[in-house]
Amino acid sequence: MRDVVEQLQRLGMSGYEAKAYVTLVGAGQPLNGYEVAKRSGVPRSTVYETLGKLVTKGAAYELRGSDDATDYLPLPPRSLLERMRREFTDSIESLEVALPAIVAPPKAYLIHNLKDAGALLDRAEDVVAGARGDLFVSIWPQEMGLLSPLIRRAVERGVETSVMHFGTAREPVGNLYEHRFPAPGGVPEGEGAAKEDPDHRLLVVVGDRREALVGGFAGGTAWGVYTEDPAVVAMAVEYVRQDIALQIVAGRVGHEAMREIWATDPDLRRFLSERDRPAALLRAAGAPGHRPYGSPPPHGAPAPHDHT
Question: Model's pTM, two decimal places?
């Protein structure tokens, strides 16, 4: 019952309204105000006002008997949910027209810091759900398990989706490319070959080449940034595109041939020797006491100038 009440509140009912409605639904027969208050926990002083609001919203009906007493019946749940769905859809469609008309162009593009895994994944879901043209994602299996339903919905609504997936994908979705070269988990050949550590993972999500989320998970902690800055968005898109291009080339040329090129070319060996750096940055970002740029300073410390 508590979960149902909370969900009804999210859809616009007050706490008392949700409790009264759930009580009426669960009764199976008309109830008067006294009975609703007794069963629901809604105070007797406000129960008739609450029931009146449900009647006004069309979520309940009044039944007047011969003795002029008033009982209440609920609108059947299926009808209520269908009505809420229509009203919600109508409001969204109206706001899609009205809100953009009043948005002022930004004077500066800010970078918003995301402080933990929950905030990071919630914002990633927002970007995926908001995509209408194209979507670029670089992701590991741990996060793919959470985001794949939304990515699949994006594909179903016609979004051109390109996914760079580290490791084997259980259920490929969209244009998905598995990161096989250099192999996640380590490249054994050559001095300085480094691990792409699944405990220190990077997540990149770009929607419509308009907004980008970049974040990382490091040893139980997480950090991230979100921005609509065109320069950052463009770099994030190219990061995913270049990684996908490398996988395509390695697949065409052959991994053995690619390993030989990487092992013998001095410039590529130099880049290979630096492959520890992303994981090191993720570890540093997750270290105790680390404060990402733009986050609040410790209590009592002077605040730096924020140029974001």
Answer: 0.65
